[in-house]
Specification:
80% of the residues lie in helices and 0% in strands. It is built from 14 helices and no strands. The longest helix is centred in the last third of the chain and has 40 residues, at 250-289.
Length: 290
Amino acid sequence: MSQQQIVQRAQPYGTESKFIRRLLITLALLFVFLFLVLPLTAVFTEALRKGIGAYFASMEDPDSWAAVRLTLFIAAIVVPMNLAFGVCAAWAVAKHDFKGKSFLITLIDLPFSVSPVVAGLVYVLVFGANGWFGGWLLAHDIKIIFAVPGMIIATVFVTLPFIARELIPLMQSQGTDEEQAAIVLGASGWQVFTKVTLPNIKWGLIYGVILCNARSMGEFGAVAVVSGHIRGQTNTMPLQVEILYNEYQSVAAFAIASLLALLALLTLVIKTFVEWRQHKAEQLLAQGLS
């Protein structure tokens, strides 16, 4: 075998030429510009099209502020609920073997495969005035559909997998050796969770919470079906943007959309920081093991 053949075999698999690398990088940057940078720029440009005064004046609408408060209120309820479910579900799937485990994983992934609009229609069928429990709810003056509780339920369903799906592979990769060692040393179940499991999953947990919060604030389809679009009562920020845009109040619509965009950018910054901290922790752990 010649030296040239040895060098060719030693090259890493999939090595591309400079032209191919530059072409791929250019296509990636073009894609990011067209589908991320350009839309965000358009949102802020349209929001400020009539000046900063008109931008802040559009924010003074009571219905818009009610939509902002409702969006944050729903997220403040949905995220802790999914946090509790995600941790429990991931613990059960990753640390225990039981009958129906595959079925549980399928149920966790169900919101990924069901359209949010379909999910909203299902809740209308179950809790609506003509639904399965509609008569009983009306008799006891309990409002689910076209009220905040229905919006919370729909948002919980849509965001259900995010935390659990972030934690399950992380817990499975860590195994159960540390927890079993802690139990042998006399630790209680709560101590095992708080002192052993939680520190190992904290960055993945924070990452899942960030994704869940971002989706809960931006959810449109399921919430639109069950909200009723009642101004000042059941309109979240995405729904308020739709209403204002349909009424040709473009500056006000893009102003609310810019708030959503700012929240998304803030979420991206926090997500990047969490990923950096997680990578840093993994590096320190690898250095300690070496």
